[in-house]
Design a protein that fits this description.
The chain is built from four helices and no strands. By secondary structure, the chain is mainly α. The protein starts with 12 loop residues before the first helix and ends in a 9-residue tail after the last helix. This is ATP synthase subunit I.
């Protein structure tokens, strides 16, 4: 089977997208169930949501960069995604602090999902960058 980029084999994108969706779902369940105070739940769910949005965007941008088979494009995506995550953390923290919500709950929700998504993104890049013969490149 030929993938979208012309290489033989199965496209690992959708398997990794499914893993990312599962990580986001687990993060949302934990953020909704763990905090005892409603305001902490709101902050944690906001963190999970913002991390999830940037994570979805990151996975699609990395897929696009890998399809170009250009190292410069892939490195640019890493930088862009890092900047987007930084902006998301800053905006989210500013929002929760301005409403006297828990910054700790927000950070816990954001980075709890972020670490799982980062692992999934790295795994996807490694799986998608293997050559058609199954070797690493």
């Amino acid at each position: 089977m030929t993938g979208r980029d012309g290489r033989q084999g199965k496209d690992p994108f959708w398997a990794h997208a499914g893993l990312a969706a599962a990580a986001m779902g687990v993060g949302a369940v934990v953020a909704a169930a763990l905090p005892k105070v409603a305001e902490d739940r709101v902050a944690a769910l906001l963190g999970v949501g913002m991390s999830a949005v940037v994570g979805v965007l990151a996975l699609f941008l990395k897929r696009r960069a890998l399809a170009q088979a250009d190292l410069k494009a892939a490195l640019k995506v890493v930088g862009v995604v890092f900047a987007l995550r930084g902006v998301a953390v800053g905006l989210g923290l500013a929002w929760v602090v301005s409403r006297n919500l828990s910054a700790i709950a927000f950070v816990g929700g954001f980075f709890g999902v972020y670490f799982a998504l980062q692992w999934i993104e790295v795994s996807y890049v490694m799986a998608a960058s293997k050559d058609p013969a199954g070797g690493d490149e």
